[in-house]
Amino acid sequence: MTDAGGCPICGRPDRLRLAEQLFRCRSCHLTYQDPRPSVERVRAYYDLKIYTNPSTSERIDQRRRGLFLDFLDRVPAEGRRRLLDVGCGTGEFLRLAKGRGWDAYGVELSPEAVEVANRLGLAVSLGMLRDQGETDMSFPDGWFDIVTLWNVLDLFPRPREPLREIHRVLAPDGQLFIRTPNEHFHLNAYRLSRLLRWPSSLARLSDDAYIFHSLLWSPKSLRILLETSGFRKIRFWNSPLSWGDPYQVVPQERERVVRMIKRLVYGAAQVVSGVSGTRWLLGPSLSVLARK
User: Is the pTM of this model over 0.85?
Assistant: First the structure.
């Protein structure tokens, strides 16, 4: 584990404890773990648990495909050229983007994932991200029309540095898309999991519902990060959910229950979003689109 020594965005130590090793910055409102997992530990997890196991990687890709296609429907190529996916894994999203007319590139932290993507003929390079926050994306200034981060921003140890690098490689008026777990949902799911111990089946599902990544973003904290990194015209919505149980959190025979619960949760979040004019986004994941 690595100690942040303050908020990962603003560096200030003034914070509110929300749970064990979980804090919210009183200045920029980011919720974060302290101490946080090192980049090496995160990379080892994906290398050992996912990228070296083709069946696991394929299962995850299949259950996220609908998310990728929903995004490509929302943001068609329409004459634009270059797309960069940061943290692209083995390249499933890049493959679908190429099929929709994008000139698609990827950067990835895992050498194993890069090797798999390259064997599939995808333009994926090894992009290094170290605990201090430095990035290495060897692309010219203004090279890309859009950059995407699918559940990656919550793993950056120092998110401001990679956001500045992304801003550099985006063309003027280029777009940035981010999908990330929603702090509001996961904090409430965590609290529910501490209270709900019976019946045991519901308790297990509640335990599986929350995710504490290194960082938990709300629209408020994410807007602060984007605006101070040079982005504008920022728009949020509840992200659609992946199909079923991508990471096999529950036994396979219970996946139907997971699908039903996810449909109910997403449907309820969409109703609240519509009634509030998108001011209240309570779904498990957030999507955001911003312009340089």
Answer: yes
